[in-house]
Automatic annotation (TrEMBL):
Annotated protein name in UniProt: GST N-terminal domain-containing protein
CDD domains in the record: GST_C_family (cd00299), GST_N_etherase_LigE (cd03038)
UniProt cross-references to InterPro entries, sorted A to Z: Glutathione-S-Trfase_C_sf, Glutathione_S-Trfase_N, GST_UstS-like_C, Thioredoxin-like_sf
Signal sequence annotation: none
Domain Glutathione S-transferase UstS-like C-terminal, first and last residues per copy: 115-238
Domain GST N-terminal: 20-90
């Protein structure tokens, strides 16, 4: 049976090791929801490129080699969460996750616009509470160079209310879409589970793993805590497998 397993390449956390980053969670949700057989290979940040480079060309934008990456049982490697979702959906179409639905695509954009402004309140905390020793110097050095300052200074200058205010418009729009379907069901498509649920909840888990207080504030800032808690609870079965 092992030869039929998908391999998910994910980022380890400090012990107890569990998945924490928003992009690999999109893929993990898909695998769990579809009930696919898989194993996790944990890669610290300096290990990503050496492990993936022999099998794939670099990404066209962003990091040259990134997580998530998966290897299908036939040996095919796919990198980048959206491309992975399309490949999984093509090979395993049931149950569907409605990748082409306009609402799903809108949520993908809104999640980016909701979470990226919060990086100033997240990055220093990630370095302190999540990163493994093997990842720490690589990751902190990379972002310190990008931001032109230490991560704690980045938080002091750009965090707090500035960050939340920048995230607010997209979060409000995202919440309006979710609330608009509440009469039909708890998901972004009402009664139908979709990739939109996994994209948003991957981001929510990312915040929750980083800091419980920030997670509680995130729920409050959405404008409808109850709707998001309902979504979280309904998708909880596909969050259980997070550490192997």
């Amino acid at each position: 049976m092992g030869s039929q397993e998908i391999t998910l390449f994910d980022l380890p956390s400090k012990e107890p090791c569990a998945s924490w980053s928003l992009n690999p969670w999109k893929t993990r949700f898909l695998l769990n929801y579809k009930g696919l057989e898989y194993k996790t290979e944990w890669l610290n940040y300096p290990e990503i490129a050496p492990r993936i480079r022999p099998h794939l060309p670099p990404n066209e934008t962003g990091r040259a080699y990134s997580i998530p990456t998966i290897q299908f049982p036939d040996g095919t490697y796919v990198m980048e969460s959206r491309k992975i979702a399309e490949a999984i959906e093509q090979r395993h179409p049931s149950p569907p996750v409605h990748l082409d639905d306009p609402t799903v695509q809108s949520i993908e954009r809104l999640v980016l616009r909701s979470i990226r402004p919060l990086y100033p309140v997240l990055m220093y905390k990630i370095s302190q509470v999540i990163l493994t020793d093997k990842s720490y110097d690589y990751w902190v050095g990379q972002y310190t160079r990008e931001y032109g300052m230490p991560l704690d200074e980045y938080e002091r200058q750009f965090g707090g209310e500035k960050a939340w205010a920048a995230a607010q418009p997209a979060m409000s729009e995202l919440t309006a879409i979710l609330k608009g379907k509440q009469a039909e069901g708890p998901f972004f498509l009402g009664k139908e589970v979709s990739y939109a649920d996994f994209v948003w909840l991957g981001a929510v888990i990312f915040v929750k793993r980083t800091d419980e207080i920030l997670y509680q504030e995130l729920l409050d800032r959405t404008g409808d805590r109850a709707a998001h808690e309902r979504l979280f609870e309904e998708c909880a079965p596909w969050m259980k497998r997070d550490d192997y």
